[in-house]
Write a structure and sequence with these properties.
alpha/beta, 12 strands, homodimer, 28% helix
């Protein structure tokens, strides 16, 4: 059984680590960690600490969980550092995108404003929670960033950009990839694709069928992160 | 805007195609297709027909939708013909697996009985509906099969089998792949991995982090279906 993982705000280091707030509450009441139990602490910046719970305490300010970190290490950042810019899918599907991208190792997600994007309300704080929860579950040492909105024009301009589209070549794992663009349900407009082609941006397909935003974003990012190097 | 797609039971051929039952009801009442509207019909065996609705009719037996098919073609079957055998995730996540696998182009899914598999109730008919719905949405011409349960011992024996596990080599796209095994939340047991290694079965990892069953199955299948050939 894998250890419980706790997210901390301060950089991981050997010694006493005091956790308060929501994370301490969650550890004490939902995960029900016990004194003496082995846990892992993650700072979201590569730091991974292993140790055990040395004290649990509740007062009027809430729960405090003390962890004695016995060993600390720094995990390598997964490469490429991939920024995924996608149109926002409807309803609860956006959380699915963030959850899946965190698991496949994307570095960041940003909402993409394409011509056919639907205006959907989204809360960065909620997505950061989803990313943090997924990161703890899959042992991810580097936080996934939730970035600000970017237009197709800005996002598609660059040497290491890949636009996902059925009209493109099959992605073959060559070349550097730093940003992946995934379009809205209605697809890119002809103008957008022309603009990307004119700028020399790579257009790649990542499967035989048209995928929905959430599947396309997660699968294409997984393929890019897993390319042979 | 893409055309509505309708699933039919008989092989696609040019001429009149009469659709009844649940599919006709769905087309008439949910998709609200109209007489004269362009539609695509799919028989799930590679047949793709293009035509238009020539009549809509309702009687005591329910809805009938007549489509006049003007052109018919046979789509190539996506290769490799990949059978994904996965442990059953909890709750609604199984539908997510089937939906995603249909989109990435897997040929079949079967429930895998591994040592740490949790017994979950599943209904093949429901999963076939999920696969059919996803197939229509993504324009998939070949039905995804929902197969019978298979044990790890049976499933891991074969030349073109890949066992997904963090301990394996990074999947590099070489070799034939006909079956992918994805383990339960608790992972494979040491005995299972030893058994697979002893049989010469490939063990591959498909990402930098441990993924949940549903993400692992969809992303690994997507990576295999997208390998350079």
């Amino acid at each position: 059984v894998p250890h419980h993982r706790l997210q901390i705000d301060q950089p991981v280091s050997v010694g006493l680590c005091t956790i308060t707030g929501e994370e301490a509450h969650h550890a004490a009441r939902v995960k029900r960690v016990a004194v003496g139990e082995s846990v892992e602490v993650l700072d979201g910046r590569g730091g991974v600490g292993r140790g055990s719970v040395s004290a649990l305490h509740k007062d009027r300010a809430g729960w405090t969980v003390d962890v004695t970190v016995e060993s600390a290490s720094v995990a390598e950042r997964p490469l490429p550092a991939l920024e995924v810019c996608s149109a926002i899918p409807k309803g609860a599907k956006l959380s699915e995108v963030i959850d899946g991208l965190a698991q496949v190792g994307a570095a960041a997600w940003r909402p993409l404003e394409a011509a056919r994007s639907v205006r959907e309300h989204w809360r960065p704080e909620k997505l950061e929670c989803v990313a943090a929860e997924a990161s703890k579950q899959c042992g991810r040492a580097w936080r996934m960033e939730i970035g600000t909105a970017i237009t197709f024009g800005e996002a598609s301009n660059g040497a290491e950009v890949i636009v996902a589209d059925a009209s493109g070549e099959c992605f073959n794992g060559t070349g550097d990839a730093a940003r992946l663009l995934v379009g809205p349900e209605g697809g890119w407009t002809g103008e957008e694709l022309e603009q990307a082609r004119a700028a020399g941006t790579r257009i790649c397909r990542f499967g035989v069928h048209t995928m929905r935003i959430e599947t396309a974003a997660i699968v294409a990012a997984g393929i890019i992160m897993n390319r042979p190097r």
